What does this fold into?
Amino acid sequence: MDVADLKARILKQALAEGFAAMGVCAPSSIPEAGARLAAYVAGGRHGQMGWMAERMEWRGDPSALWPEARSVIMLAEAYTPEGDPLAVLRQKERGAISVYAQGKDYHDLVKRRLKRLGRWLIGEAGPETQIKVFVDTAPVMEKPLGQAAGLGWQGKHTNLLGRGLGSWFFLGAIFTTLDLPKDEAEVSHCGRCTACLDICPTQAFPAPYQLDARRCISYLTIEHRGPVEPKLRARLGNRIYGCDDCLAVCPWNKFAQAATEIGYRPRLDAPELADLAGLDDAAFRARFSGSPVKRIGRDRLVRNVLYAIGNSGQVALIPVVTGLLDDPDPAVADAAAWAVERLRAQ
It folds into this structure.
């Protein structure tokens, strides 16, 4: 088998499937990742994300995850927004939802595409070829692998960005027993730019290329359970699920590829905070069915909505908030009390 020719055909098929870019690296190509992860967890910067500490030997060394694998095919899928994703931050009566979560759940869409490409690959290379596909659902460090495969580099905000991709893209991985030609790892092209660090509302970056998740709005609104530290609540603004600030200001986005998957088109946009505050569990599940937002549950979303209402200056929303002062969830009740106090101080 001519593996170089096969790799070229894989790329052609990947692009035909809708992926924006492809690169190949060895499972053993990120030897420094394990030590960086261990230091990150030891410093407590992962917050409540206990899964980061679990199976660290697999996260830090993909060759340990599946020893038979000889190549990792890394794929990028664009979800670039059409407009300014930060414009909603000026609409205080509405909730800002991260671009990636405004459409259908990317886990489902990317995995479906990965599986189609994987089946095609087995058909081309032979039934003895083995594969495993991953998209943010296993102990796989996609960003270091994406850099090792040449798709881009981890910028000063720690997200992956590429010269021909910008920063609006998802990552998927196909581990395979095929020994394909490897691509050259990418290096940083951030230069002196600090736009992503400067815009962060909570100063979540202790230094370039370092993130303290405990101060990151994406972490606080999605991963963090219970009340958010009071001094950080005002900095959340009207962000109720995730944060796009550091991605949106990256100058490399002038090269971002347009999204081709219609499933990423916004279905949620910027919902009114008053409507979201009144959701019970059944209404929450119905409204966010098929959306990444569903993973945080009603209580955490309403907690975030109440912080946003408290930051909105909309005194007319006080009656909406007072109805949640006795909510069964302690974090929601606490957020309601904070919001009422903040609005009455206007």
Notes: DSSP finds 15 helices and eight strands in the chain. The domain at 3-81+103-176 is CATH 3.40.109 (NADH Oxidase). The radius of gyration is 21 Å. The beta strands are 21-25, 71-78, 96-97, 131-134, 153-154, 160-161, 169-176, 239-241.
